[in-house]
């Protein structure tokens, strides 16, 4: 009996890991076809359910198709999802509540929602961290709110890095805009 108990205790971590891997295997993935290559993000609905539903709704509506990465800061992040190449802002749905305390940190190659200084203002714009930006996490942010991470890049990290390295400048009222537009040609749910 004692042997069986020990065996069960030793097998528990393995079974938990397999269960977690299986759960993660079911997480939705979105393919961002960009003018510089493809990026696949795996979303985390168990950690940021409202944010994931919001992002998927924009994908399903075709909102991201034809938008650009309009803010690119090397060593920090690449931001997109709100503007066309001529810097026209696309209409959005209502803002969503901030889910920055979901337990996912703003680490390199994670995807998070952009927002204004008001915590519950995220709509369509997102950013991909190109560095570990722990100062954007809720527990470290100056405003105490942080930015909601809702997934991570699982393919196309090299594309993210290429985008982060493009030349930028001012365009209209914005800074850090790529000189040559980096366009999201299409965003598609692939899993």
Automatic annotation (TrEMBL):
EC number: 5.2.1.8
Keywords of the record: Isomerase, Rotamase, Signal
Domain PPIase cyclophilin-type: 33-189
Extent of the signal sequence: 1-23
A Pfam family assignment: Pro_isomerase
A single GO BP: protein folding
Any GO molecular function: peptidyl-prolyl cis-trans isomerase activity
Catalytic activity field: [protein]-peptidylproline (omega=180) = [protein]-peptidylproline (omega=0)
PROSITE patterns attached to this UniProt entry: CSA_PPIASE_1, CSA_PPIASE_2
PANTHER family linked to this entry: PEPTIDYL-PROLYL CIS-TRANS ISOMERASE CYP38, CHLOROPLASTIC
Protein function: PPIases accelerate the folding of proteins. It catalyzes the cis-trans isomerization of proline imidic peptide bonds in oligopeptides.
Family: Belongs to the cyclophilin-type PPIase family.
Protein name as annotated: Peptidyl-prolyl cis-trans isomerase
Lineage of the organism: Bacteria, Pseudomonadati, Pseudomonadota, Betaproteobacteria, Burkholderiales
């Amino acid at each position: 009996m004692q042997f069986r108990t020990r065996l069960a205790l030793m097998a528990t971590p393995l079974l938990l890991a397999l269960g977690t891997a299986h759960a993660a295997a079911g997480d939705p993935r979105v393919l961002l076809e960009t003018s510089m290559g493809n990026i696949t993000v795996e979303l985390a609905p168990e950690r940021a359910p409202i944010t994931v539903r919001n992002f998927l709704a924009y994908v399903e509506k075709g909102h991201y198709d034809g938008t650009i990465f309009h803010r690119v800061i090397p060593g920090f992040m690449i931001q997109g999802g709100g503007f066309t190449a001529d810097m026209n802002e696309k209409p959005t749905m209502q803002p969503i509540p901030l889910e920055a305390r979901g337990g996912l940190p703003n680490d390199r190659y994670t995807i998070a929602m952009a927002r204004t200084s008001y915590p519950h203002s995220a709509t369509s714009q997102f950013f991909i961290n190109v560095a570990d930006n722990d100062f954007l996490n809720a527990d470290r942010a100056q405003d105490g709110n942080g930015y909601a991470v809702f997934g991570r890049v699982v393919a196309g990290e090299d594309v993210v890095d290429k985008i982060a390295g493009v030349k930028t400048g001012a365009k209209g009222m914005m800074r850090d805009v790529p000189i040559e537009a980096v366009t999201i040609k299409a965003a598609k749910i692939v899993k």
